[in-house]
C-alpha cells in the first residue's frame, strides 16, 4: 500500500525543535554589536562591563526574549541552583501547604525547587537521591518518608546539605514542630475543663511526628490522673479518622474529649461522630486537632487546632540550607517551631 503524503515523524520533530529554539547569547551579541564575552559579563553578577555596553546588551536581550541558561552554568560549575523537595504523598494535608511554602521560599532565594514524589522504600528514596545528585542539586529537603542511612551517606559524600522536617536523622539539619509541648497543652486544656475520660485518635503509620504527639498526650493525661483510650487508623488521613472514631466510640463509656494527631484525622472523626453516631460537637464531645490546614476553619468543622505555620517552617529550612552551604562543617542544627492553639467551636476553654 502506498504511503500517504504528509510530514514524517522526523519532520515533526524538526519543526518542534524549531519552535522550541531559545534565543542564544551569540544572537544577543550580534544584535547589540558586542562580543560574546560582553554578553556573558553583563549577566554575571559582579563582572566588569561598561555601562553603555550593558545597556545595549540588556536592550537586545529584552528584544530577543533572551534568558541566561542557568542549567548550563550549573553544569560548568559542577553545581546547580536546584533544591530537591522529597515527600511521600505531597498532595495530602499539611504536607501540601508546606511543599508550596518551600517552593515559594526557594524561588525567592533564587533556587529552583524540584518536587520528588516518592514512596518510603529504600529503593524509591535512593532513586530520588540519585536524580538529585545527578542534576547537581545543591541541597535536599525531606518532608516525609524514612531515609535509610545510605540515602544520607550519598548526600554527605557529595557535600550536599540535607534538611529533614518533622523527623530525626543523624548528621542532618532539622526543623520540627513542638509536638510534645502542644500535646501536653491539649491534655491540660481538657483536664482543666473537667474532663477525665480522654481519647487520642492517631495512626498506625507511626511517623515520628504522630508518635511524638500520641506519646506526649498519653504521658500528660496519665500524670493528670485521667483515663485515655487510643484509636488508630491505618494512615494519617480522613478515612483513618473514621476508623479511629469507630474504635473509640464502641468501647463502653464514650470519651469526653478527643485529641487528634492531625486535622485530617479530626475531620474524619468529627463526621463519624456527628453523622453516624448522632452526637454533637462540642456539646457531647470536644475535639482538638493539629496542623490548622485551611479546612479547619470551614463552617462544617470549625476545628480548634494547633497551628503549624508552613511559611515559618519553610523559611527555617531554607535558612538551614544557607547556613550549611556557608559553613559545611558546622554540627547539625535543630530548629523547633512551637505551634499556637487556635480556638474555634470544637473546643473552647
TrEMBL record:
SUPFAM superfamilies: lambda repressor-like DNA-binding domains, Periplasmic binding protein-like I. InterPro entries: HTH_LacI, LacI/GalR-like_sensor, Lambda_DNA-bd_dom_sf, Peripla_BP_I. Residues 1-22 are annotated as: Disordered. Residues 23-77 form the HTH lacI-type domain. GO terms for molecular function: DNA binding. The keyword Transcription regulation applies. It holds the Pfam family Peripla_BP_3. Keywords: DNA-binding, Transcription, Transcription regulation. Gene3D superfamilies: 3.40.50.2300, lambda repressor-like DNA-binding domains. This is DNA-binding LacI/PurR family transcriptional regulator. It comes from Rhizobium mongolense.
Amino acid at each position: 500500500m502506498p504511503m500517504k503524503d504528509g510530514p514524517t515523524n522526523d519532520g515533526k520533530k524538526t519543526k518542534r525543535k524549531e519552535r522550541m529554539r531559545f534565543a542564544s547569547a551569540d544572537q544577543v551579541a550580534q544584535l547589540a554589536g558586542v562580543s560574546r564575552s560582553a554578553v556573558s559579563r553583563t549577566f554575571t553578577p559582579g563582572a566588569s562591563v561598561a555601562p553603555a555596553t550593558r545597556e545595549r546588551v540588556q536592550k537586545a536581550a529584552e528584544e530577543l526574549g533572551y534568558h541566561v541558561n542557568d542549567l548550563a552554568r550549573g553544569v560548568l560549575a559542577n553545581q546547580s541552583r536546584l533544591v530537591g523537595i522529597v515527600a511521600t504523598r505531597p498532595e495530602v494535608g499539611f504536607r501540601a501547604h508546606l511543599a508550596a511554602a518551600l517552593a515559594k521560599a526557594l524561588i525567592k532565594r533564587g533556587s529552583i525547587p524540584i518536587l520528588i514524589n516518592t514512596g518510603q522504600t529504600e529503593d524509591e528514596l535512593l532513586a530520588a537521591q540519585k536524580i538529585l545528585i545527578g542534576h547537581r542539586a545543591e541541597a535536599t529537603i525531606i518532608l516525609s518518608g524514612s531515609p535509610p542511612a545510605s540515602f544520607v551517606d550519598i548526600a554527605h559524600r557529595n557535600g550536599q546539605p540535607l534538611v529533614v522536617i518533622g523527623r530525626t536523622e543523624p548528621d542532618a539539619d532539622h526543623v520540627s514542630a513542638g509536638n510534645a509541648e502542644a500535646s501536653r497543652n491539649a491534655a491540660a486544656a481538657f483536664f482543666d475543663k473537667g474532663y477525665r475520660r480522654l481519647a487520642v485518635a492517631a495512626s498506625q503509620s507511626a511517623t515520628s511526628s504522630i508518635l511524638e504527639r500520641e506519646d506526649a498526650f498519653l504521658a500528660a493525661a496519665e500524670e493528670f490522673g485521667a483515663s485515655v483510650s487510643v484509636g488508630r487508623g491505618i494512615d494519617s488521613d480522613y478515612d483513618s479518622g473514621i476508623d479511629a472514631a469507630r474504635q473509640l466510640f464502641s468501647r463502653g463509656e464514650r470519651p469526653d474529649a478527643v485529641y487528634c494527631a492531625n486535622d485530617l484525622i479530626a475531620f474524619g472523626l468529627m463526621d463519624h461522630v456527628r453523622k453516624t453516631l448522632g452526637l454533637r460537637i462540642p456539646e457531647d464531645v470536644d475535639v482538638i486537632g493539629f496542623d490548622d490546614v485551611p479546612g479547619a476553619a470551614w463552617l462544617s468543622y470549625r476545628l480548634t487546632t494547633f497551628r503549624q505555620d508552613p511559611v515559618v517552617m519553610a523559611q527555617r529550612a531554607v535558612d538551614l540550607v544557607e547556613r550549611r552551604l556557608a559553613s559545611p562543617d558546622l554540627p547539625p542544627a535543630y530548629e523547633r517551631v512551637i505551634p499556637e492553639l487556635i480556638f474555634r467551636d470544637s473546643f473552647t476553654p
